[in-house]
Design a protein that fits this description.
Chain lengths: 320, 116
Amino acid sequence: MNWAWADSDALLIVIRTIHFAATAVTAGALIFRAVVADPAARHAGWTSASRAPSARRVASIGLAIAVPSGVVWVLLVTMRMSGLSLRDALSADGLGTVIGETQFGQASAVRLLCALTLAVCLVFDRIALLRWGALVAALGLVAGLAWTGHAGSTPDPLGEVHLAADILHLGAASAWIGGLFLLAGLLVTGRRQPAPAWSAYQLDVIRRFSILGMVSVATLMLSGLVSSWLLVGSWRGLVVTDYGLLLSVKLVLFAVMLAFAVINRLWWTPRLASAAQGQAGLTAARRLTRNTMIELALGLMVFAIVGALGIQHPAIHLAQ
Amino acid sequence: MLRSFLFAFIALLGLASEVQAHAMLDRAEPRVGNTVATAPREVTLWFTQKLEAAFSSITVTNAAGERVDSGKTRVSGSQMSVTIRAGGPGTYRVNWRVLSVDTHTTEGNFTFQVGQ
């Protein structure tokens, strides 16, 4: 049988994109629950944010996509590393060597353990300790990605710096994109919840998410600068290499996302606050929902870029 | 407009998928293409990224095309080396194949001269 498809970069990019996005949404949903939805629900006097879109459900669906896409990713990489067929790649010589003797394989094994732990914690989500356990496992799942890519291969003495920057970048991106997912759900749900108590809760959630968003954006910018310095190194690298070109598109998408976030924060949120009820409030809620959906779509495009960037050679080695 | 944007976006990713990433040889000892007075006891290569020992190797052949390396490549971080048998003057060819830690495989070769 012809295994040329395993060498297809396009297939690898698609699988990586799906896996990165699903992992980020999984972790981000639980970050959103821990620092936005649950505190807002407690502030409203509810025992939990049970009336809001379920972070547990979103995280479960994300995990259900992240695990199989992660397994396919590991298999594809094993076939490409070893040059073996699918059947042989599943043997001790293939998968056994990759998992036992490569950093990618070991990181993937640890991430699989995090995914299994997360699945158990989500099943027993009513136990408070396991809710925190789910958050820790989800953060491990997303942070583990740092050891599978360029950040994990930077030679010392900057290797640890690059890994730390990448972990922060992954965490912040997850918090933003996962939060947007739940925020969009909350805003859609809000249209069917006209009670004043819900409006106050919704507004509180938006304000808390704004703070989380600002922290995420600042973290993304700082960690992104460090990674760019290590992987691109110069303006020339940004414009003359495929890696630099892709990174430029990512930065443009990020800037547009940021613009929508700023418009939401400075324009529509104050209008929603001053006119929660009535037509003006409805218009503000609709615009917030639409802008959030656009942000989310742009965020998913960013993940497609990340999926492609990972198989490119860093610009810093090509532009010198 | 949205359709044009999506088309351009997909085309850009298509461009990205045509280019396979690869680790790059940073430097070597003996140096690439150089002449040394006596045959070295080992060949050492340095790469731009950390390497995986399980899928990285060096072979060295003499002017007659015979292998003169020990067959046991040692990998440490981004550095890879192999011991070679003492040999006479002539052109030696170094073939290398590496897997960087970020899972990209590449290969290459170069020559160095002994005593000429």
